[in-house]
Specification:
It is a single chain. This protein is α+β, with helices and mostly antiparallel strands. 34% of the residues lie in helices and 25% in strands. A five-stranded antiparallel beta sheet has the order 3-2-10-9-8, with helices on both faces. A hairpin with a 3-residue loop joins strand 8 and strand 9 (242-251). It is elongated and about 140 Å long.
Length: 435
């Protein structure tokens, strides 16, 4: 689990611009919106409406949790769940962790309570402890969203209860979860399947919670998927949001993140069915294939102003290993370079040179940046001559006039020298005559 999460956040993820490789018709999903990413290289495998505005429902609590973890020093501190914390929650039919009014609980139990059973009262408790009010805590949540460049997101509350101004996108939720997974305490809570809260002063036997994600999947069945293949997740539900789920799966050293939203709400846990379907399909019907290595030369281009490096080679900066359908004929994959024919030195190491795109049957499946492997210096003499020549071309009329004047001066100088020679010859003849 620790390895999962040596991830880069903000989904500019890794070094590439990425396009989906799976056609929509290959997948039979209930959710209207879905977004599947390879966590090892940032490859987008499925993308249906990842930039459309959605309501996150209780997926909001991923942000609530990470802000709490980053602002609480001692998780064993206690808070009393008073009337202000419970105000309006039952009336809005919010999901609850099960603590009582005026019960004293630790912040650690509140964090597990807000995430596993999606308890609204524990969500509010964290907000009150950290910021004094839910409104002030929401400001921290929106600040964090701005830091992560979640430009399509705005939070109004800590619970995910519906509000027209409380919205996000699947891409932003993926950015958030990728960031959160770098936090060890978040990873622990995210992957916990069940937990017993023992700190409640009015629950002497404790309260047992099961992760809402695993509870939903257990209800629909794993359908051939190994139960260890899903590492954790966060569900969400309101009528406008539908059923939502942010999850992470891993099998055979392959790691993926799936965000789904707006699944139907009647009859079954359709968001859980979609998760099982996607992970089963990706682990059984797709394979990881190495398509390029850094040693392979993808192409070359000329370099000006350097005699020792007249050409530059283009390479992938790291191994390109993609998740692709097992049925795909890899021999039909071609590399298209979008680069210049000639570059000018100096070129810095790591400098952007262009992009390389992998095409399958003419369609792009993956694209990444090309950068300089090493620095290439500039020869000052070659550069000086080039600048002079360019200046002369840019000032053609003036240059022509200058050349004319120079030629005229040289011609007149030549005539003057000839005249001097003639005079010298005449003087010599005169001297010879007098002798």
């Amino acid at each position: 689990m620790k390895k999962i999460m040596q991830l880069l956040f903000c989904l500019g993820m890794m070094f590439c611009l990425i396009v989906p490789v799976a056609a929509e018709e290959e997948w039979d999903l209930y959710s209207d919106y879905y977004y599947l990413i390879d966590l090892d290289n940032g490859q987008i495998i499925l993308d249906q409406g990842s930039e459309e505005m959605i309501y996150p429902a209780s997926m909001t609590k991923m942000m609530t949790l990470i802000v709490g973890l980053e602002n609480i020093e001692n998780l064993q501190d206690r808070i009393v769940l008073d009337e202000d914390i419970f105000a309006g929650l039952y009336e809005e039919n919010a999901s609850m962790a099960g603590f009582y009014l005026n019960e004293s609980v630790t912040l650690e139990d509140c964090l597990y309570g807000l995430f596993l059973p999606s308890g609204a009262e524990t969500t509010r408790a964290i907000a009150f402890y950290v910021s004094g009010s839910e409104e002030a805590y929401v400001e921290l949540m929106n600040q964090k969203a701005q830091e992560l460049n979640m430009t399509g997101t705005h939070f109004v509350n800590t619970t995910g209860l519906h509000d027209n101004e409380h919205y996000t996108t699947l891409r932003d939720m993926a950015t958030l979860l990728t960031y959160c997974l770098q936090n060890e305490q978040f990873r622990t809570i995210f992957s916990t399947r069940s937990y017993v809260a023992k700190s409640g002063s009015m629950h002497t036997g404790g309260i047992r919670w099961q992760s809402s994600t695993f509870k939903s999947i257990d209800q629909v069945g794993w359908q051939g998927l190994d139960e260890s293949a899903i590492l954790g997740g966060k569900t969400g539900y309101t009528i406008p949001a539908g059923l939502c789920l942010a999850s992470v799966g891993e099998w055979d050293h392959r790691r993926y993140m799936l965000i789904t939203a707006h699944a139907p709400t009647g009859g079954a846990a359709y968001h859980a069915i979609d998760a099982v379907t996607v992970y089963r399909t990706i682990f059984q019907d797709y394979v990881k294939s190495v398509l390029l290595t850094p040693e392979e030369v993808l192409g070359t281009a000329k370099v000006r102003y350097n005699l020792t490096h007249p050409e530059i080679e283009f390479h992938a900066s790291q191994k390109v290993e993609l998740t692709l359908p097992a049925s795909m004929d890899l021999s039909q994959i071609e590399v298209y370079l979008s680069v210049m024919e000639r570059y000018e030195a100096p070129i810095e190491e790591g400098e952007y040179l262009g992009t390389a795109t992998l095409l399958y049957q003419g369609e792009p499946i993956y694209s990444f940046e090309l950068t300089a492997d090493s620095a290439i210096g500039r020869n000052p003499i070659l550069y000086g001559f080039s600048i002079m020549g360019k200046w002369m071309m840019d000032h053609l009329i003036f240059t022509g006039f200058l050349l004319f004047v120079l030629g005229f001066v040289l011609w007149r100088w030549h005539l003057y020298r000839q005249e001097l020679r003639l005079r010298q010859v005449k003087r010599k003849k005169r001297r010879m005559r007098y002798r």
